[in-house]
Amino acid sequence: MKRLSFLLGAAAAIALSTAANAAEKPRWALVIHGGAGIIERKDMDAATEAAYRKAMDAAVARGSAVLAKGGTSLDAIEAVITGMEDDPLFNAGRGAVFTADGRNELDAAIMDGSNLKAGAVAGVTRTRHPILLARAVMDKSPHVMMIGQGAETFGQTQGLEQVPPSFFFTQRRWDQLEKELTKRGDPIPAKPAGAVAEAADAPKPDDHRFGTVGVVALDAKGNIAAGTSTGGTTGKRWNRVGDSPIIGAGNYAANDSCAVSGTGTGEYFIRLTVAREICALVQYKGMKLQAAADEVIQKRLTALGGDGGIIAIAPDGQMAWSFNTSGMYRAMAADGVAPVISIFKDER
Ligand code: ASP
């Protein structure tokens, strides 16, 4: 009896909050990031800024098109992230940062808030779209996480496109690696076989690792999901894996709380289980999404000495971002609302 009245209470509460939000809840919404870090106006030339804004605009358009047609939040994430993985501006897929031995080791994760299914891959070197591999792990295997060669072998059985490792090469990421290794006093490895430098007018190197990409989305059925894809951090060694493919750290989604994708120094995000922590504050403390995001990023992550940011969405249409760096490439869009695209801290 007690349990029944509890259930009735919960149902009534849901009905009330749905009614309260009915007026403002968008039919669909999405938030995208393209990495956080020391991104400052004084260091960015007009052409580079324009290139990033254009890329974020295109990312929003891809995701919005899927959601406006009634597509799922997972499909929107795929559409946005596959494009960003192919774009050398971002540290994901082509344009990923290099390990200390001159390789690209890619990590990705995706999570479905409607059923808590999740898929993640780490340390892949030949799969063109790690986010599709993460999705295949979720949809087509009994597992949540696969790494390295095994993950790639699984991807081949699923017909996912394989490319030579040099496909991911960009000169600007190589220049960043050389800078980082020189600073450390470590040797510079040989370039990957077949590496081709891009055109000389490509955007200049920026900080050593920006450009992890992530998407959180709400679809017309009311389901939320999160996806993240990255090359990790420049000069990483020993098969280091960051937070991006760790469910609950850099990526998380649950319809009863929120969906989060993070970017920043992964070690801190893992230790704080940043993504799940934000959702726990929403779920158990009833906090608003923005307040929960700020609590974890501005207070807890900062107190631990970590840097980075997150994007988040809730099933009732709340959208949030929070970062403690000077910038984060970011965008939000929703049904009937003009998209917002921002880079620097002093923007919205
Ligand atoms: N979080 C990523 C990692 O630590 C890197 C980033 O977001 O910049 O692997």
Provide an overview of this structure:
- This protein is of the alpha+beta class.
- The protein has a single domain (28-335), classed as Glutamine Phosphoribosylpyrophosphate, subunit 1, domain 1 (4-Layer Sandwich).
- Helix content is 36%, strand content 22%.
- The protein contains nine helices and twelve strands.
- It has helices spanning 2-22, 46-68, 73-86, 130-140, 148-157, 171-184, 266-271, 274-285, 289-304, and strands at residues 29-37, 106-112, 117-124, 145-147, 213-218, 224-230, 251-253, 259-264, 308-313, 319-323, 327-334, 337-344.
- A hairpin with a 4-residue loop joins strand 2 and strand 3.
- Mean pLDDT is 91; it is low at 1-23.
- Bound molecules: aspartic acid.
Key descriptive features of the protein:
single chain, 348 residues, alpha+beta, Glutamine Phosphoribosylpyrophosphate, subunit 1, domain 1, 8-stranded mixed β-sheet, 4-stranded antiparallel β-sheet, 12 strands, disordered N terminus, binds aspartic acid
